[in-house]
Design goal:
The longest helix is centred in the middle third of the chain and has 29 residues, at 141-169. This protein has 270 residues and is an alpha/beta fold. 56% of the residues lie in helices and 10% in strands. The model has no long low-confidence stretch (mean pLDDT 88).
């Protein structure tokens, strides 16, 4: 008996692997790393073997290998599981720092946009955003705040553009990101991008101070996940409201590390 090989659409693969569709396309078009089949209408269909290859690519990236060098390693039969970690940032860090120092927002935008297109969000955060933030702390005081401000502006501009673009083609999964950080938070946008990487259509609420009425406003049939975020301490009232919301069990709930720490600390004390 003949069985058809299972095939998956690009959105399904994105949800399974956490890799944005735009990144999967870049890995195919620019680097020739994956070669999915096409339907008569030109839509990509991925096999389980393709998905295994995508995970192998992720393994190399996690080891610190730049995307442009992965194909040769795979071609030579190297195994990412046996490779040593290459503890280095992407070379684009220096290019980005130079663009920031020269106040060249156009160049900075181009570099960041390319990185988010070619790499998973978490990889960009670990290998580019954090190293740039650390480097900017060493800039002389008279220029530091100016360069930090430009970098934040670039991140907000690029991330907003990506989120808007991904929301237009996202699946039916809808995530609500509730942030207690002030409006314009870079941290909030990074978490929004991570939610988007998982195939969610993301709605951001920023500068939130009170969530006691959140359950009344939401329709469980229209929101699949609620993610609470903050990079600063939250008050006891907010922590209590989050606990009450979680206990309603209508939604899948996620938390940023600080809220997770506060919530579970309160759970242990209860």
């Amino acid at each position: 008996m003949h069985y058809k090989t299972p095939r998956f659409a690009i959105r399904e693969v994105s949800e399974m692997t956490g890799i944005k569709p735009v990144t999967l396309r870049a890995w195919q078009r620019r680097y020739g790393l994956i070669q999915p089949k096409r339907t008569e209408k030109g839509h990509r269909l991925f096999s389980e073997k393709d998905i295994d290859l995508i995970r192998e690519i992720q393994g190399w990236l996690n080891k610190g290998v730049p995307i442009g060098k992965v194909k040769e390693l795979i071609k030579n039969g190297a195994q990412s599981s046996q490779a040593q970690v290459v503890d280095e940032s992407l070379h684009e860090v220096e290019q980005l720092l130079q663009a920031i120092a020269e106040m060249d927002s156009g160049k900075g935008d181009k570099i960041l946009s390319g990185l988010f297109k070619e790499y998973p969000t978490q990889h960009v955060v670990d290998k580019v955003i954090h190293p740039v933030q650390e480097a900017l702390e060493s800039v002389k005081a008279t220029q530091r705040s100016l360069q930090v401000s430009l970098f934040q502006s670039l991140l907000i501009t690029v991330s907003n553009r990506i989120i808007e673009s991904e929301n237009k083609v996202a699946a039916n999964k809808k995530a609500l990101l509730v942030s207690f950080d002030s409006a314009g938070s870079v941290d909030t946008r990074i978490h929004a991008l991570l939610l988007s990487d998982s195939g969610n259509r993301v709605t951001m609420l920023e500068g939130v101070e009170d969530i006691s009425g959140l359950s009344e406003m939401l329709d469980p049939g229209k929101v699949s996940q609620v993610y609470f975020h903050c990079s600063k301490n939250i008050g006891a009232k907010v922590a209590s409201d989050i606990k009450e919301f979680v206990e309603s069990k209508f939604y899948e709930v996620g938390y940023s590390p600080l809220i997770h720490q506060v919530y579970f600390s309160n759970q242990e004390q209860a």
